[in-house]
């Protein structure tokens, strides 16, 4: 595992420390919010806004960024350094609970590298997704499963809602109460905000679904989404260079049965889609701190 962590550091840290990092409007918004949290020490009950007007994510993203911003005295590198740390934690967890091949994918796949050298509020969903896979595979207590599931709503509600619809079917009904308890704990900040502000977010959601525009599902849209998923599955596992991808397949296949490879690929896709849902990785501006 040491050599995997060393490789991850070697391929990620130079980009971060040289200042080749994404920094656009969202990054500036998050920086101001976290610096205000550090300066005032006032508790934060909401995170970044969602695509629904008047609805916000939980504050987990801001609290996650706070230690690095405090240690670096507000440097723009704080966000990428936080994600780099989470990527190392992900490699360790994958190696310990899933296997060496899963850890290799997390350490070497191109989009995993890209997510570890940037900072946007959906990106921690890669670690949340990994924890969810581990919790289901290892049969963790349903309370912990609920906590992990609830954390998803602090970073990317679109995918977290999907999990919320699927996870209860994978848990015995007698454990649903623990699952709900864990989920409830993660929503305490938002609930406190709602009580103080006359349930403004609840009203925003109701207004959105009663007066919002409907989106039709067409074969063309289905084809676009399918192509996107297939492309991201490829990038989640192997380089976007044909001969390197072929070499990677041969190396993995040499010591790994096909079904094990497919399981590792699926786990990687679940975690990766967690971090890229609703967020384009292209078209970013870059900042090089002085």
TrEMBL record:
The chain crosses the membrane at residues 42-65, 77-99, 111-136, 143-170. Keywords: Membrane, Transmembrane, Transmembrane helix. It comes from the Bacteria. This is Glycosyltransferase RgtA/B/C/D-like domain-containing protein.
């Amino acid at each position: 595992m040491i050599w995997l962590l060393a490789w991850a550091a070697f391929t990620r840290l130079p980009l971060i420390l040289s200042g080749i990092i994404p920094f656009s409007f969202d990054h500036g918004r998050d920086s101001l919010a976290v610096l205000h949290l550090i300066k005032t020490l006032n508790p934060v009950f909401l995170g970044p806004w969602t695509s629904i007007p008047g609805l916000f994510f939980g504050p987990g993203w801001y609290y996650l960024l706070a230690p690095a911003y405090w240690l670096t005295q507000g440097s723009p590198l704080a966000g990428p350094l936080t994600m780099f740390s989470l990527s190392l934690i992900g490699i360790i967890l994958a190696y310990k609970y899933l296997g060496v091949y899963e850890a290799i994918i997390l350490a070497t796949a191109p989009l995993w590298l890209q997510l570890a050298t940037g900072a946007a509020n959906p990106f921690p969903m890669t670690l949340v997704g990994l924890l969810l896979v581990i919790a289901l595979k290892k049969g963790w207590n349903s309370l912990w499963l609920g906590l992990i599931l609830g954390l998803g709503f602090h970073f990317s509600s679109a995918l977290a809602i999907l999990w919320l619809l699927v996870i209860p079917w994978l848990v015995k009904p007698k454990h649903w109460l623990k699952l709900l308890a864990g989920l409830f704990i993660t929503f305490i900040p938002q609930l406190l905000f709602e009580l103080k502000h006359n349930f403004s977010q609840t009203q925003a959601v109701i207004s959105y679904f009663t007066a919002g525009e409907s989106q039709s599902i067409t074969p063309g849209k289905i084809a676009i989404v399918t192509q996107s998923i297939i492309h991201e599955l490829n990038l989640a596992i192997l380089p976007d260079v044909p001969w390197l991808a072929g070499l990677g397949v041969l190396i993995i296949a040499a010591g790994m049965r096909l079904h094990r490879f497919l399981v590792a690929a699926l786990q990687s896709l679940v975690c990766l889609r967690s971090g890229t849902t609703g967020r384009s990785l292209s078209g970013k501006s870059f900042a090089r701190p002085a």
